[in-house]
Amino acid sequence: VQLVESGGGLVQAGGSLRLSCVASRLALDAYAMGWFRQAPGKERQFVAAVKPNGGATILSDSVKGRFTVSRDNGKKTVYLQMNSLTPEDTAVYYCAEKRRSNFERLRSSTNDYDNWGQGTQVTVSS
Question: Is 103 exposed, middle or buried (0-12, 13-18, 19+ CB in 10 A)?
């Protein structure tokens, strides 16, 4: 199963981007989805996650109030809306999935996800 991210690019500080992650599987509604990012020379860090039914989300403190995560299971797509971008948001952004129940809590560790996309580059200029 492939996860394919898109929507990255170059944007000025204060701007917005919306990332998409499309899954090639038949159905996505049994999978928790996460967004992570990795800047050059740094470890991959958690950004956001959403439950299989979209009923709950979590965000890292560094993006709360600026980013939102959502999903459209009918389109097998997860979104990351990024507003008020800063140069510190520059990174390769990855989506990831893990089969979970909606009753399970969302996770923020890379070890909690077992299928990853190839990433999309986001560059924010000052």
Answer: exposed
Distance CA 60, CA 82 (A): 13
Q: What is the DSSP letter of 109?
A: S
**Is residue 68 pLDDT above 90, yes or no?**
yes
Residue-wise DSSP of 18-54: EEEEEE-SS--TTEEEEEEEE-TTS--EEEEEE-TTS
Q: Are strands 3-6 and 115-116 parallel, antiparallel or unpaired?
A: unpaired
Measure the CA–CA gap between 125 and 55, rounded to whole angstroms: 34
User: Which pLDDT band holds residue 76 (cuts at 50, 70, 90)?
Assistant: very high
Question: Would you call 89 helix, strand, or coil by DSSP?
Answer: helix
For range 70-93, the mean pLDDT = 97
